[in-house]
User: Fold these one by one.
Assistant:
Number 1:
Amino acid sequence: MPVFDQLTHLQFPQLGVKGAYVELRGSLAELPAYGNYRPLAQALLGEALAAAALLHANVKGKSRISVQLQSRSALRLLYAECSESGEVRGLIQSQPGSDAPPLNQLGANAALAITLESRSEGERSGTRYQGLVPLVGERLDQALEHYFASSEQLPTALLLAADAQCARGLLIQKMPSNAAQQLLAEDFDADGWNRTRLLMETLTAAELLAADRDTVLRRLFHEEQLALVDGLRLRFGCTCSQQRVEAMFRGLGRSEAMLALEDGVASVRCEFCDRLYRFDRVDLEALFHPLSQPASDVQQ
Ligand SMILES: [Zn+2]
């Protein structure tokens, strides 16, 4: 039985502020490699997964959000994604025995990106938008907060925290101002954004991690009118499949694919879910035989 985690939308109707809160617990427990990472790398992956879920609160329709960091330092790759069905998955690749350094020490070649892939009903391939996030500050939440404030021009406050059991994230964002609407709304509080942002600044990552959702929200916003709305139910899930591995081999071409055979078996292990796919020579040959090629879904 999958254990679901919950994404919660936060609405401050009088303040022109919206937000989201997420706690990942079951999803991390189900993520096969999560327990194997060094503490800082583990926390970074937990935070990136929480960030992907929080960012998904702002998108509509069939969309997948991913947070990806690559560098030539000890931390080679960080990847976290959240799909429209609430499936989260992620991984870290690092040099053996090394932990994750602060983000602003990853070196000049490090790159952090947020990618939004969205698809309309019935569409096989959709649109892809990627934003490059400058590595400002030591922490992932600092970099993302800076990114939204500068490139998206959406003032944002974001706090992320994770340990071996749990990842939590809290995001608030100033809604695009609509002057006419604000004039019409008698109870609109023009100082709302500044106040909620300052309240957020009183919370540390350690405090976010130590307390549950209602305790944190009550502590910060007990004097504000705040509505909580359930968002995505989240759980660990992987999109790998037999068809996708077959498509990968077809993409390599027959001779390259055959090079993967070791003792007569080509094995592919999914790094996200640890599932093992095995192909013998006959299986591989069949992939390149025109009559056996089904119209399979090769979409990633
Ligand atoms: Zn998988």
Note: The pocket of zinc ion is lined by residues 238, 240, 270, 272-273, 275 (CB under 6 Å).
Number 2:
Amino acid sequence: MHYQGHIIRPPSEANSIILQVTTGCSHNRCTFCGAYQGQRFQIKDSAIIEEDLDFAALHCTAQSTVFLADGDALVIPQKRLVTLCKQIRKRLPFVRRIHLYANCRDILARTETELAELKEAGLGRIYMGLESGHDKTLAAICKGATAAEMITAGQRVKKARIFLSITCLLGIAGIRYSLQHAVDTAEVLNQIGPNQIAILTLMLLDNTALGQAAAAGRFTMPDKLGLFQELRTLVAAIDVKKSQLQANHASNYFSLDGRLPRDKEIFLATIDQAIAGALDLKPETLRGL
Ligand code: SF4
């Protein structure tokens, strides 16, 4: 496969064929994200993608999903993306679903009909980075969307019957807005009702604007206890009909993995144990992105 730069995928795509159809991220401005720094965004040449499909047709026959890398493959123009999805289904008949990352702007650029067309062509899952439902925080981190826009985008994906996974980021609002961030994020999730909620914990990176702001004393992340209280406020305020909740990313101090609303009391009891200091936490050295 012709991979360029860092290949980043959600944990749940560990068994997917990773087909890199773009490099980098077309937005590449979020202040906390160092994933694609220095990498020029481009949609890869069709001939290269063809070669990777040839490789996958020969060597990846046991895998039933394709993840389209990198950071926001939904930025590919509609006609080209529909053609690509159909081509994947034709060339890799053992593949049942195609998944990708998308930012809010890419989703809002499409109508519900266009999303439904992609679903028909094989697009089965969209991962959207919400990070926060708190508008001041979204503006501060240059996410490029407001909470209202996130809600519209998420609801549009749901209406197209595409599985929607949404990422939230503990700590991203700093200590100042920590609990408001939790409440507002839950409200956005409640308005959307995503199929999956993934909770990660901010890790400050030296090569990012936010990491540098923290080093200069202009941003202060909540400490562990503050993060656990933020998590508790978030989980307590989520009121969805049926969503998976996963906080089992490498960046988290402990794991939650289950369903809402079914497991809510178990989640809250686990978080309370962490707040009380009665839970084994992941050592700092084992946390990662
Ligand atoms: S967080 Fe996502 S949208 Fe923001 S710069 Fe990183 S990859 Fe791009």
Note: The CA atoms of residues 47 and 53 lie 10 Å apart.
Number 3:
Amino acid sequence: MAEYITEQKTLLLNFLREHGDSSYTIDEIMEKMSELGEGTLPGKSTLYRLMNRLCDEGKVKKFAREGSRGFAYQAFIGEHCSTHLHMKCVSCGKLLHLGHEISDELLDRIKSVSDFSVSESDTVLFGSCADCRFGGKND
Ligand SMILES: [Zn+2]
Ligand SMILES: [Zn+2]
């Protein structure tokens, strides 16, 4: 049973990493993965459990999705994502990595002016990426 779960967790993580530019809700993941025929799909409750575990392990980020009550999930690509801040585009869902040095600078500055220590790995800045602001890529 434990092995079975590990396998499904890997499958899920691989899927999210392959689509690292986007975030998906559990329903969307179920739909996409079954379209791709990615092996045996876990049930919805298992999927939630696996996803929570991936979030705990810091491999996946959970976002509140605008305009819905559900959450969307997105994988962190790269091994050092706990050492810098991230920015998320609310239009296209892209996750951008802020440089390690700039992240530290920013957090040090915040700490010095407000005496507040920001939790780096939990913090995501929301906004619009350059493509969405200037590119007019509407299709
Ligand atoms: Zn990162
Ligand atoms: Zn964008």
Note: The CA atoms of residues 34 and 41 lie 7 Å apart.
